[in-house]
Amino acid sequence: MFSNLPPMTRGLMIANGVVFLLQMVLGDLALAAFMLWPLGSGDGYGAIEFLPWQLLTYGFMHGDIAHLLFNMLALLMFGAPLEHTWGGKRFLTYFLVCIVGAAVCQLAVGAWTMSQGGPAYPTVGASGGVFGLLLAYGMLFPHQRVMLLIPPIPMKARTLVIVYGVAELLFGFTGWQPGVAHFAHLGGMLFGWLLIRYWRGQPPFGRRPPPRPRIVR
Predict the structure, then answer these.
(1) Which of 81, 86, 89, 85 is nearest to 134 (CA)?
(2) Greatest C-alpha distance within the chain
């Protein structure tokens, strides 16, 4: 089954697995400079600060095996059909834009947290990209039925996107699920939505002119 996956989806899964093995072997401290750190965090935590490459590298690191497996399962479920639809180049572009978009939103949250006297803490995980894939799947295949893991309830893809989006907003503003970058997840969805609308020529990026009518003689 794994060998039959489209190449970009398979490559992303392998890359995430390899990086997680490096985390286990080398330890998080050795790879801390590749996690996403808030702006200005260097003065508050062992001289580790935000560096530009962290906008991408954090998305290939994970906190534990459950975190990795959940994201890779979602990448398998939603990434493969999207890559089959878009092709490898567009799919990879979309995924990485969602990773960066999630990082931008998390940087804003981290800056606000630090301004309120909170600690500087790093963010890791491909979840921002995965939530972007979920949104794209719901937009391209809105009536496709998918199954929630917990609880195991089947629903339309569009409904699943709405449920997860509302849940992330609720958890993000209430703090009911601490230690999870809820606004990064929403950032991945937001940037994914904007990119799809850009590709389609939809507002806020303007509208493509309608095709000229044909004259049939």
Answers:
(1) 81
(2) 76
Q: What is the C-alpha separation between 131 and 95, in angstroms, rounded?
A: 10
3-state DSSP percent of the chain in helix, strand and coil, to 5? 65, 5, 30
Residues 6+ apart with CB under 8 A from 63: 124, 125
Q: Domain-by-domain residue ranges, the chain?
A: 7-200
- 198-206: long-range contacts, CB 8 A cutoff, minimum separation 24: 199/90
* CATH topology classification for 7-200: Rhomboid-like fold (1.20.1540)
Residue 191 is which amino acid? F
- Residue 48 — very low, low, confident or very high, per pLDDT cuts 50/70/90? confident
> What are the tens digits of pLDDT across the range 62-121?
999 999 999 999 999 999 999 999 999 999 999 999 999 999 999 999 888 888 887 888
Nearest to 32 by CA among 124, 132, 136: 124
- E strand or H helix at 51: none
Q: What is the 3-state secondary structure (H, E, C) of 99-112?
A: HHHHHHHHHHHHHH
- Name residues whose C-beta falls within 8 Å of residue 27's C-beta, 6 or more positions apart in sequence: none
